[in-house]
Amino acid sequence: MRILPLVASTETLAAICTRMATADFVCVDTEFMRETTYFPDLCLVQLGTSEEACAIDPKAPGIDLEPLLKLLVREEVLKVFHAGGQDLEIIYNLTGTTPAPLFDTQIAAMALGLGEQVGYTNLVAAYLGIQVDKGARFTDWARRPLNDRQLDYAIGDVTHLATLFPKMLEKLRKTGRGGWLDDEMARAADPATYANDPDKAWTRLRLPSRKADVLGRLKALARWRELEARDKDVPRGRIVKDETLGDIAASPPRAQADLARVRGLSAAWANNGIGDRLMRSLVDAAPLSPDEMPAREPQRPGLSTDGALVADLLKLLLKIRSKEAGVAPRLIVRGDELDALAAGVRDGLPILTGWRHGIFGADALALVEGRLGFAVKNGKLMMSEIVLEP
């Protein structure tokens, strides 16, 4: 594979992206800093195909990233990531959409029996027998110039990925498990996952109450904080902590001077500009409308003592079947499906349809209906069919 010099000009970037636009796939990785900013500070972008790889410097004077962004959202090219959530967030912030189609090797690893959140280093070691040098992991990527070791480390993320991806894809094809990943890949590619609407910021917070007036104030405060953090380009927690927002929403101060007595705020808030804007957000806050009220947490299916034991047996069965199939349990079952099945629910459970039914759901149903049981033979745990009397 040809490793190109650090890309620092629009002309060079455009030429590379034109070539890569004809590739079957492009591996993508980013380096960024986000400790002190609202949006991640993009410091480096790495691209790799089966033929060439490069690192792009977004901070190079005068560089225009438009050719790169067009490549990343080009539908004719498959984009390959590893644990790409934060990379996708950055691309969404820059383009308003997410790369599609995409393939995430960490998600694929779940279908290949390598665990639920296998790290890149372990994945490269397992498939390629290469030990990745992690020495530059904690680099300050915003500092210039970047040295050769830093660039080698960064580009290695896509050069290894370009070799790794075809091997994983071939194994998925041979095992017929590619379709198992559709839901997970679709979830990763959904732009709504990365949208950051200030009017919906409150939904990410722990609710201090279910009263409409309290939640109306929480919505207004969360929106205010989001806009303050975005304007100042600082993490939202640097403005006000989540817990403090909840306290203010539940017990709102009557006047700005009362902010000096709010835990988590300094005395200066009693007469400064940010305190004034906070109070204005409270004044303008209206009770949450009925259609905005959050749905109550669905009651978990009522489990009797025996039902809870059945749920535990289902978890044991899941452990056995996922190990036998070589697939991560989380790819088979999500949420409270096992409790629901133990409580008698049958409709709308993904484990009772499709490929999940074949490797786990059928046996799970047989277990809760008394047609399958656990047995120990020669010191080994095994499943045993139970013949029910008519």
Give an overview in words:
Helices cover 44% and strands 11% of the residues. It is built from 15 helices and eight strands. The protein has a six-stranded mixed sheet with strand order 1-4-3-2-5-6. Strand 7 and strand 8 (380-385) form a beta hairpin. The model has no long low-confidence stretch (mean pLDDT 92).
Short characterization:
It contains 15 helices and 8 strands. By secondary structure, it is an alpha/beta fold.
Pattern of helices and strands: EHEEEHEHEHHHHHHHHHHHHEE
Low-pLDDT parts are none
Helicity level: 40-55%
Shape: flat
Strand order of the largest sheet: 1-4-3-2-5-6
Strands, helices and their partners?
Blueprint: E1 2-3, H1 10-20, E2 25-33, E3 41-48, E4 52-56, H2 66-72, E5 78-81, H3 85-95, E6 102-104, H4 105-111, H5 120-128, H6 148-175, H7 182-189, H8 212-232, H9 236-239, H10 242-250, H11 273-283, H12 305-325, H13 329-332, H14 337-342, H15 354-368, E7 372-377, E8 380-385
Parallel strand pairs: 1-4, 2-5, 5-6
Antiparallel strand pairs: 2-3, 3-4, 7-8
